[in-house]
Amino acid sequence: MSKDSFAQKVAKTQVWKSIFRHGPPDNARNRAAVIAGNVFLHLHPIKLKKSGVQLGYTWCMGGLTFFVFLALAVTGILLMFYYRPTAEYAYNDVIALREHVPLGIMRELHRWGAHAMVITVWLHMFRVFMTGSYKPPREFNWGVGVILLVLTLLLSFTGYLLPWDQLAIWAITVGSNMAKATPFLGHGGPGANLAQIGDFIMVSDKNDVRFQLLGGRFVGEAALLRFYILHCVFIPVVVSVLIAIHFWRVRKDGGISAPL
Amino acid sequence: MKNFLNVYTDPVYSFTFVCIAFFFMIKYVHIVATKKFGIGLMLSTLIMFILCFMDPTFTKNFYITNDNVPIIFLVFLLAWTTWFALYQGVRNDNRIANGLPPLEGTPENREKVWAWPNLVYTELFAIILGTVFLIAWSVFFKAPLEEPANPTWAPNPAKAPWYFLGLQEMLVYFDPWLAGVLLPGLIIVGLIAIPYIDMNPKGNGYYTFAERKFAIITYLFSWLVLWNFLIIIGTVFRGPNWSFYGPFEVWDTHKVVAANNVNISEMLWINTLGVKLPSNIFVREIAGILMTLAYLVLFPIFLTKKIFNFNGLLGKICNGGFLGQRYLKSLGWARYALLIFLVLMMLTLPIKMYMRWLINLKYIVFMPEFEFNI
């Protein structure tokens, strides 16, 4: 009997066996077990069509979008330790991140990652369209994907305000001014001045949708807090739930699309 | 050359040029979908960027207001993905024409393989590459940070994040309620509706072009020309006061742009009939209202009826053979109505752009009394 290597010895310890309850994935049984027995890997099917693992077909764009989302969650949580969403501190905290951290790239990773995620999610949709993968039985999951794409843009947009510099507040001012023009619900939109009781204007800049979004009539401290909560808590939670549905449905609708 | 580009990148010309280029891309797709063309496309994109960044004005303008670095990746990826999808589509079309299954459907590719190691190792590789790419990007490019927020001083131009600049560019032609609310809303609704409108059973799960021409042309046009090209215009060709600036032109805040745009109502009553504008707003705007209704209601009905007998393309359109009758039959009236509404709403953008450029049109319907301007 040959002597066990160090790796083989480790694999025989009680600790290792308690974590990985099967042998190395070099035979059919263990290859099934490694996928099915691991909470992260079990997102995958145990076996799938060869066409579905080819990079030329999938471009890996959906997977990369998810990966960048996770990277953004990690870097975002790290940034939250140092960032206070108030007009007094926000900008200085971002400056401090830049000035006081040698070789720090957390903010860079987070910002460029956000842009990268917008691009990868767009290209993922493009790939899905060009392969006709939205066709039955995947119609519903395409819709979930479209919502996820919109939420990705909103995540990026809400995060845009947080550095609290000129670039941030004026980009958000330009963007949120669109809400002002919502028909009937924004005070500058068509039909808003139809809702009037006597002299009392029902839809004004003190209560329209832009006011609800910003918590004020302009991009101020209330808007900063709202965008912070939307960016760090609300939208990520919604996105996480929808990602779960999206992945679940990919599996339930027959896995990665292939010719019928 | 730079002066030439400074003049002809104006959307008036460049949008037309991109539309013509798109037409030729579709018409000669079998030439586009070759490896030589793909390599040429990537090389010419690369050379274009290198030449552009050798110009100090371009470089300065490019970095002046926004974090525009992602746009570079976007342009490369657009060129690459469009070519690659068409390449694989035409390759499959040729196979299908010869009685073979698409490449994704060969018996060999239908075989099932183990997720471990085939899938998980690909993913691991992609994750490592993605990490390396993000870290390299972050090391070489600092995240932008400008002066502290100052609500009393607006930068000029004030630009939205780059992925919304297509919508901001639409503000040149439409009021905010259309460019910022209704049309983006319809993009979302339209995208979700695609699987419920597209009843073509072919092309499910493999690249193709010939089997889904209408769907792919519509999608590619809106994606490449109406969405991404407008983003590029908004990022690169718009300077102070959202005026047009050539890529190598110095941004001069005092550049004067003539704005003598007129409304349809003024064209009708003042310029044509030579009378004052009627005081009743609905009479005043009657021409624009009728045009809008004709476009959105009568035109879709007209497409489905056989009214005139023309030959050629005109006959195809008027006899409904081109779009209306055929699609009405295969889709049913509800799907047809939704499809034609979404396509017509999408086409309002290029229509309004050309009406602005050709006849200086400001508004088709102008009712500031209700903030209702089309």
User: Low-confidence parts of chain A lasting 5 or more residues at pLDDT below 50?
Assistant: none
Per DSSP E runs of 2 or more residues, the count of β-strands of chain A stands at: 3
Low-confidence stretches of chain B are: none
Enumerate how many helices of chain B there are, as a single number: 16
Strand composition percent of chain B: under 5%
CATH architecture of the largest domain in chain A: Up-down Bundle
Radius of gyration of chain A: 24 Å
Elements of chain B, N to C (H/E): HHHHHHHEHHHHHHHHHEE
Categorize the overall geometry of chain A: globular
Largest sheet of chain B: 2 strands, antiparallel
Assembly of the depicted chains: heterodimer
Please, how many helices of chain A? 11
Q: Overall mean pLDDT score of chain B?
A: 88
**Which radius of gyration of chain B do the C-alpha atoms yield?**
24 Å
What does this structure look like?
The complex is a heterodimer of chains A (260) and B (374). With 260 residues, chain A is mainly α. Chain A is globular, with a radius of gyration of 24 Å. A two-stranded antiparallel ribbon of chain A has the order 2-3. Chain A has helices at 6-12, 14-19, 28-36, 55-58, 61-80, 90-100, 106-130, 139-160, 166-180, 209-214, 221-252, and strands spanning 47-49, 196-197, 200-201. In chain A, strand 2 and strand 3 (200-201) form a beta hairpin. The termini of chain A are far apart. Chain A contains 11 helices and 3 strands. Chain B folds into 2 domains: 2-102 and 160-242; 264-373, no CATH class. In chain B, 65% of the residues lie in helices and 2% in strands. Chain B has helices at residues 2-8, 11-27, 29-32, 35-53, 56-64, 69-97, 107-110, 115-140, 165-170, 176-197, 213-236, 264-272, 281-284, 286-304, 312-318, 324-359, and strands at 112-114, 366-367, 372-373. In chain B, helix 10 packs antiparallel against helix 16. The two termini of chain B are 38 Å apart. The model of chain B has no long low-confidence stretch (mean pLDDT 88). At the A-B interface, helix 3, strand 1, helix 4, helix 5 and helix 6 of A face helix 6, helix 7, strand 1, helix 8 and helix 10 of B. Strand 1 (47-49) of chain A pairs antiparallel with strand 1 (112-114) of chain B.
